[in-house]
Amino acid sequence: MATSRPQPLFYQSSKCVDLYLDANIRFQLSLRCPTFQTVHQAATLRIHDLKMRPNDFVVNDTTFTLGVIQKYTTTPTPESVKLLNASGGIQYDVDRYGLSEEDCIRVSKLNDSTLKEELYIAHRVFERRIYDNKYEAIQLECLAHHMRLNNQEPPYTHYLQLTMTTGTVQKVERLEYDNNFKISSDYIIEKMFGVARKKVQIKNLQIDREALDLQLMRHIQNAEFLCVAGTGSLKVFNVNQNNRIHFAKCNDVETDFADFVNICSKVGQFYSIGFQHQTTVEEFFEMFRNLPGAETGKSDESRLSQFPECIIISMSDETELNVWFEKTNEEDKVYCNTEFTVKIKVQNRGHAHVI
C-alpha cells in the first residue's frame, strides 16, 4: 500500500499549530523559513519564563546573547579576539576599527609617546603567561588607534552575532554590522518577538534592575499580572498602576502607606504581598490599622480565611480599600512561595462590613 506524502499546513491551521509551539522552536522556524514568518508575526507568542538581564535574556531554557564580533580576513585571529568572540562579543557601538567613541575621545587627548608608555607599563604588569591575552588586547587596541589616525584599512570586519545557548548546545546567527548596536539589536528582537504586531503572553517575567529602561517600563505597566521577585516597596505601586501586582516580599515604613492608599482609586485594583511569618504580617497590618479612618470588619473574601479580620479604609463615596491576610492557598502557590499572603483590593463601597 502506497504511503501518502505529508501535506503542508495551510495558513489558518499553521496559526493553530504555531500557538502551541515552544517559543524557541518558533524563533528558529521564523529565522529559517520565510513563509513561516507571516504566521509567527500573526499568532500570539506564549513564553513560560522570560528573564531580562543586562548582557543577555533567557527564554524558557535558552539564553540569547547579542554582541559585535571581529572576523579577520587575511591573517590568523589573535587569541584575545577569539576569547572575546567566544564570550559573545562587544555589546556597545564601535567603529570599523573596533573602537568606541569613548576610546577615541580618551586617546585624542594623548600623544603617541604616551600611548607607547602605557603599552610599556602594561607589558611590565602583565609579563606572566596568564596575562598574555590581556597584553595582546592592549597591543591590538593601540594598533587600531594607529590605523584610525592614518585612515588605514583594518584586517578585519565586524558582524552582529546572536548566540543561542541551550544546555551545552550553541547556535549562532550573524548579520552585517552597520555601526549601530542599538538599532541592529532592536531589529533582531523585533524579528524574534514581533512585539509591534502581536500579543506576547509571559507567565513568569524576571527583570534585573540594570536591564530596565523606559520602553520596558511601559510594557510592564500594561501587564495584566505583574509579579515582582525579591524584596520590593509599596512605592513601586505609586508608578505602576497595573490591575494586579504581587510582591514576593515587602519592606516599607509607615509613611509609604498613606502615599500608597492615595493611588488606590480604581475598583478591581488588586495587590498581594508574601510573608513567611505571622508576626511580620501582624506588624504590617498594624500600619494599615493606624491609617486615618481605618476600621475593622469582615468581607466575603476574609470570611473564608483562617484570619477573618478585614481592615476597611474609605477611599471615596463609591470606593473602599479592603486589606486581609490568609495562609497561601494552592492557587496562589503558582506565584507565591511564602506561608502567608496579604491581599489588598479596591472594592465598591459597602463590600466589607464594619464589626
TrEMBL record:
Keyword list, A-Z: Coiled coil
Taxonomic lineage from the root: Eukaryota, Metazoa, Ecdysozoa, Nematoda, Chromadorea
Protein name: Uncharacterized protein
Annotated organism of origin: Caenorhabditis remanei
Coiled-coil regions listed in the entry: 195-222
